[in-house]
Amino acid sequence: MSGGRAWVYGDDINTDVLYPGAYLKGPIEEAAKHCLEAIDPTFVPNVRKGDIVVGGENFGIGSSREGAAEVLLMHGVPVVLAKSFARIFYRNAFNVGLVALVCKDTNRIAKGDDLNIDAAAGTVENKSKGETYSCETVPPHLMEIVNDGGLVPHLKKRFGRTS
Amino acid sequence: MGMTISEKIIAKACGRETVTPGEIVTCQVGLAMFHDSSGPRRQAPALKELGRDVWDPDKVVCITDHYVPAVDALSAEILKITRDWCAEQGITNFYDQQGICHVVLPERGHLHPGLFAVGGDSHSPTGGAFGAFMIGIGATDMTGVLATGEIWVQVPHTIVVRWSGALAPTVTAKDMMLALCARIGLNGAGYKVVEFMGEAVTALPMDERMVLPNMTAEVGAKTGIIAPDQVTLDYLAGAGAATEGALDWFSDDDCVYEQVLEFDADALSPQVAAPHSPANSKGVETYNGVRVDQAYIGACTGAKLADLHMAAEVVRGKKVAKTTRFMVAPASTRITQAAAKDGTLETLTEAGAILLPSGCGACAGLGAGVLAEDEVCISSTNRNFQGRMGASSAKVYLASPYTVAAAAVAGRIADPREFVSAGALSP
Ligand code: SF4
């Protein structure tokens, strides 16, 4: 279960907007400061732990850079909701421990709406509007990866390494 | 029921007779490629944490291209980490500063039809030009592959893009892909394989064919693929790649395609994509006269030998406009050598082109040739997302090498057909 305020964006939010190429070289902490800056300079200064990023179609299109998913996690965003995801972003999200949920009703969500999300059940409760939307359920093997905290901790378990 | 070429490759890689779109299967990876940005600096610490070494160093190819040559201590450090780690892990397929990964990989004979491959880069679908099934993955997925030699995939549906007819002179594979982006949009092939066919596709030489699957990344596809034929075989033989059984990889007549999109090459004109999306593509006349500060020939998409030839055809005997910088970054050192030998570099530099190192350069916003605020660039690269090539307010138009070179000479976006007489084109 996760809950927080919604940050709502449109279709085709790309990896250069999430993680500008100019910061690829340096530490991810630096790139994180510029996350979504090109389209919304208010995001970084105002995002709070638990907030949810909401997109339209094709969220995360572009580069394979995994930092595009990681910076959202670093800002405390546990879940991204979108009508559809770019495939590499989708895989990357689960691999780093960010939940990506396909929800066809994201256009009903407005900026600042108070959301409550149950990824396992596949439901999004919009408390501000008194509505509930359903999401596509996540394949079990991906849910297992994200519950372990990402692919590396998941593989650690598989290889029988503790800590 | 028959299978598509992609389904056949996946079935073989997961050890099954058949697979069906939608199924999730675990495949044995035949080749894993990564570069300096997506590679060792990310996987080395993760593998250490897992206590694993690379599952099979012979199946791994590492290529430095994003930070080459080093321009500061940070990029130098990333390259050093890459070199040291490849040495430590015994990765002998290591190409240091030899060019862009998607071009170097086939050039050095690492791709062949039927191969199931992964690449730590979103343009890894380029390998599909050689009949390989090659998908792009992120850094942690790559860690998983290096640790285990396998990866899960969902078997994708296949969309056919069929180009009938013949391209006019100065109309290229790049124009075909910009037209596709405009028609189906950035998610038009989401999660799917795009299989290219038709006489305008088979008529293309390998340098041009590579552009088609390369830019399937711009329509959200899992990958793109072209069934191998004699043109593929000749290239593979020249590169020293495996050719045995290569022509056994094709889509069965009774396979199931989700959709077939028909395009007419005869009707295609030079295309230009306006900022900030490849899907903003229209005929060049729409943007005619837009002033450009920079014309850039570069990237895995637009700086192969054939691309340099196109640019040279346009600028031969002419001069680059005083208000425009014309930058050329050949996609590999071998391409630079060939272009030096055949006079192409002379033609380009005499016209005023500035030669840049072989690598991703300005395409990824990392190397030489990035843009200042509000500057306008026309580029032979594959994507023009906001902020990619430098400052966030910079505007990048995408076009073929012909159209980029025409803009370099005119100082404005211009129709390349006015610069090249049909007879002047090399065969
Ligand atoms: S040239 Fe550009 S598109 Fe190609 S691999 Fe490099 S950064 Fe990516």
Any overview of this molecule?
The complex is a heterodimer of chains A (163) and B (427). Chain A has 163 residues and is an alpha/beta fold. Chain A has one domain (2-159): Aconitase, domain 4, CATH 3.20.19.10. Chain A has seven helices and seven strands. Chain A has helices at 15-18, 28-32, 43-46, 67-74, 87-96, 140-147, 151-158; strands at residues 2-8, 52-54, 79-82, 99-102, 114-118, 123-126, 131-134. Chain A has a seven-stranded mixed sheet. Chain A is globular, with a radius of gyration of 15 Å. The mean pLDDT of chain A is 94. With 427 residues, chain B is an alpha/beta fold. Chain B folds into two domains: 5-264, 2-Layer Sandwich (Aconitase, domain 3); 272-422, Aconitase, domain 3 (2-Layer Sandwich), CATH 3.30.499. Chain B is built from 15 helices and 18 strands. Chain B has a five-stranded parallel sheet with strand order 4-3-2-5-6, with helices on both faces. A five-stranded parallel sheet of chain B has the order 16-15-14-17-18. In chain B, helix 3 links the parallel strand 3 (60-64) and strand 4. The longest helix of chain B has 17 residues, at 73-89. Chain B starts with a helix and ends in a 17-residue tail after the last helix. The interface between A and B is large, with 41 and 48 residues.
Key features?
heterodimer; A: alpha/beta; Aconitase, domain 4; seven-stranded mixed beta sheet; 7 helices; 7 strands; globular; B: 427 residues; alpha/beta; Aconitase, domain 3; 2 domains; five-stranded parallel beta sheet; binds iron/sulfur cluster
